[in-house]
Predict the structure of Zinc ribbon domain-containing protein.
Amino acid sequence: MSTLRPGVPGATRTCPHCKTTILESASVCPGCKHHLRFDPDAVESARQRSVPLRVEGTIKPPSGDSALEYSMVLTIRNDRGEEIDRQVIGVGALHADEERTFTLAVEAVEIKGYRAGRGRGRH
């Protein structure tokens, strides 16, 4: 959880449905998609949301009798290259004629009226 005070960009809380750490400003959990509170401006805030990073890739095991085990690991680094978060998202195995597609998307929304440099946390 974030040590930032409520209302500061980057402050976090726990989703009551899936227990994932989410941004305090979220009205819908990005993990489980449950609505967390009434937001009369939800349509407008969804329009302001952007996806500045999206990467997708597919893996297949080599042909033959072999299987391929995988671990999906997500690492977040700050501007100095220091690791600030690392999580194993999922693991599994692929057998012949199977494949998996992985998608990473970073959603962002601009916070207006906030002065940079004040109240910055570790994220």
